[in-house]
Each structure stands twice: as structure tokens, then as C-alpha cells.
Amino acid sequence: MGEIISTSVFDYLWIQFYNNNGYGPDPCSLGLPGDAPFNFNNWTSFIATTPSKNAKLFIGVPANTLAANGNAGGAVYYATPAQLATIVQNTKSNPAFGGIMMWAAGYSDANVNNGCTYAQEAKNILLTGAPCGGSQPVSSSLPTTTAKPTKSATSTSSATGSGPTGTVPQWGQCGGEGYTGPTQCIAPYKCVAQGEWWSSCQ
Fold first, then answer.
1. How far is CA 188 from the centre of its chain?
2. What global pTM score does this model have?
């Protein structure tokens, strides 16, 4: 990917900052305990000398403990909502910061905390600085590295909103075959079935 980015113009880069700890010599990681150092600054330094110098960088994360590689061993790459809030807090002032991307929507929908899916947690963090039902994190230093990055991911997942603890916001999922998350909509919305697999608050 480094060669492609160096010779092309990208507006957005969705970078997989997980499941790459062993990728030498430049691991791409969130800097969580047990991970390689977080290397967002490496990416900004790298793109500064390319046609993609104005690209926005999205921090790619797994949407639950199984999302990184499909098994329990991938949990080391998972950032809890509180950890994700700290990562964003320490990165959002960088002009290259574009937001969060995650793998994948299904994993997010199955990961419900404080009445929010992981995607809703990410949206709440971007809007307020805190996960659903939480408070803003105190900025802390994450380990960093300065090696040239070479890996990228392009999968995206969009957040669907956030709401008070134990309730579902407008357009949030509130039911469907196999759904195990919260079912109570924020007033005045009601849970409306839109098919066998999906109901949302409208």
C-alpha cells in the first residue's frame, strides 16, 4: 500500500490498526497493553511527502473481541469503549484525523454496552469525547513509534446514533431475528419491524 499511496491521491485512508503486531518492521497497532506502539503519527509523517498529503486518516478498530481474527486470541487487539475514547482524545487534534472505522457492522451490533452498539459508542465518543453512559477520559500518553507504515484496510461501518443508558435512539436497532440488544426506544419513538432481521426505533 505504501507504493500506491506514494503515487496516487487519496482523500481518505482507512487504516487497520489491529492484527498487525507481528508485521515487521512496522507493526500497525492501537498501542493497547500487549500491543505494539500506536503509530498514527508515522502515517501522518509518511503521507506528508505523498500526493495524499491532505488525506484524512481513519483509525481502524475491531468492533468486538472476536472481530480482529475470528477467535478469542484476537481480544488483545480490541479497544474497549473507554480505551477507544482515550485513543481518540489523544489523536483528534491532529489535522489528519478523520474518524473511526471498524470491522464490522455485525460484530458491532452484537457488542452492546450501556444500551449502545460499538458503532454507537464510537459516534458518542466522536461527538462528546465519552462512550455511552461514560465521562470524558483524561488524556494520557500512548506509546508511539516512528517507522514507515505499509498496511491499510478499507472496510467501513457507520454509527447509527447514541442515547441514554438502557434505551435505543431514533433509527437504532431495537429488534429482529437473533438480536439480543436493548429493545426500548427513546420517547416518542416506537420499535417498528422492517423485516425478519431488523426493527428500528421510528
1. 29
2. 0.67
Alpha-carbon gap, residue 49 to 123, rounded angstroms: 31
Averaged pLDDT, 53-75: 92
Residue in this structure with the C-alpha cell 518492521, named with its chain if needed: 25
The pairing of strands 199-201 and 173-175 is antiparallel
Q: What is residue 155's predicted lDDT score, i.e. its pLDDT?
A: 37
Q: Tens digits of per-residue pLDDT, 133-187?
A: 876 665 554 444 444 444 443 333 333 444 344 478 877 788 887 777 788 888 8
The string of pLDDT tens digits covering residues 149-158 is 444 433 333 3
β-sheet with 56-62: strand ranges across: 12-16, 56-62, 97-103
131's CB contacts (< 8 A; 6+ apart) are: 81, 82, 84, 85, 113, 114, 116, 121, 124, 125
Question: What residues form DSSP beta bridges with 10?
Answer: none
